[in-house]
Amino acid sequence: MTESPHTSAGRRPPSGGDRRPSSGSRSPEYHYARGLMEGLRRDLLTDVLAYRPLPPMRTDRPVIRRLSEPIRKWVRWLPHAVVAFGALLVLIVADAAGHLVPGLVPALAVLATLVRPVAAFWLSLAVTLLIAFVGGIGSGWPWPDMCFAAHLVVLTVVAARTRPRTAAWMWVVTGAYGMFADVVLRSQFGGSDTGPMMVTSALVLLLISVAQVRNSAEAEVTAERTVTQQERSRRTLLEERTTIARELHDVVAHHMSVVAIQAEAAPYRVENPPPELEQAFVTIRENAVAALTELRRILGVVRAEDYEAPEAPQPTLADLDGLIGNVRDAGLTVEAAVTGAVRPLPQGVELSAYRIVQEALSNVLRHAPGATAKVEVSYVLGGLGLRVLNGPARGLVKPSPGAGHGITGMRERVAMLNGEMTAGPVADGGYEVAVFLPVSPAEREPEPPGSAAGPSDTPGTTDTEGRA
Description:
This protein is an alpha+beta fold. Helices cover 55% and strands 8% of the residues. It has helices spanning 28-45, 62-65, 69-75, 78-96, 104-112, 117-134, 145-161, 164-185, 194-265, 275-302, 320-329, 347-367, 405-416; strands spanning 333-340, 372-380, 383-390, 420-425, 431-438. The chain has a 5-stranded mixed beta sheet, covered by helices on one side.
C-alpha cells in the first residue's frame, strides 16, 4: 500500500502556486509603517466632522481657587476667549493687507476649533490652498499672511485639544502641503515661506506636546498615589482587624474555658442527677472544647510568623490608672475622671475601651507635643462613654507625621461593638475623640460566684481626677 503525499506525516509536496507571505512573515519595517498609517487614519481621517465642543476650564486649580466666585465664573471661559482672540488676530492681519472679507474664512477655521477640531485643521489647509491659487491676496507663498497666522492658531488649539501624536501628524501633513505647493504648483512670488511655517509650528507643537506629556505623567503619578493610598488603607484596616481578633481570642477563650469547666463540674453538684442531665452537660462540654479548638485554628491563620502570645491577661478599665501614669511619666499632662456608677462590663468592651484611650493618648504624644489632655470615662445607662480631649501643641517640638492608622483602629473597635465614634479638631486648635459603646443589661459581665464586693471594691470606682 502506497501513502498519498498529502497524508504522509511531516511531508508536504512543494507548491509553487501560492507563495504569498503571511502577515506574520512581514518585515518589522512593514509593521511599523502600517502602524504609522493606522495612527494617521485614526487621528486625522476618522470622524473628521465629530462634534467635540471645548469644555470650560476647571476652577479647582490652586491659582484660580484664590479668586472670588464671580470672577471664577468668567475665568471658566478663558480658553474660548483665547480662541476668539486668535480669530480676531487673523482678521487684523487680513485687514492690514486690505483683504478683510477673504480673511473671514481663515478666521472661521480658527473658530471651528471650538467644536470640530480635526475638521478645522483640514479647513485651514483647504482655505490656504484656495487663497494661494487666487493670488494677490496678501504676500507669501504658499502661506499668505492671514493664512499663516490662522494655520498657526489652528495647529496650536487642535494640538492642545488632542494628543502629541496628532500634533506630529498635523505637522507632517502641513510640511507635505508646503512641499507640494513649492514643487508642483510653483510659486509666482520670489520665495517660499514653507520653511518659516515648519520651524515656527515645530516649536509651538513641541512646547504643547511637552506640556501634555508632563500633565499626563502627573495625572498617572496622582492616580498611582491614590491607588497606593487605598491599598495602604486597606492593608492597615486588615492589620487592625487582625490585631483585634488576636486580642479578643483570649477573652473568648476564657469564657469558653469557664463554660467547659462548669459543664464538667455541674453533675457533681447535684445528688443522683438523671442520665439526661448528665448527657446534656457532657454535650455542653464537648461543644465548648470544640469551639476552643476552632478558635485556636482561626488564630493560627491570622497570626503572623513572629507573633508571640502575651503572657499577661488582656488589659481592662481597671488598668487605666497605670496607663495614665505611664503617659504622665512620658511628659504629658493628663486630667482623668470617672463618672457614673462603676459596674463590671463584658471583657471585650473593657479591652476595646482601654485600647481606644491608649491610642488616643499616644496620638496626643505624637501629634500634639506639649499639649494637655483630659480623659473622661462615663458609666451611663445602656453603655460606656469615652472622651479624650487635648489642647493645641505647645513648645518647640514638632509633631510627628502620621497616617491616621490609630483612628482607623479605633473605628474598627467601635464598629465591632456597634458603637458610635466622632473624632476631629475643636475650636481652640486641639483634638477630640468621643466614643459610646453600647452594653445591654443582658451583656453585663457576671460576677464570680461568692463575690460580695460592693461598689467600693470594684476596680476603677475611685475618682482618678488630678493633674500631673
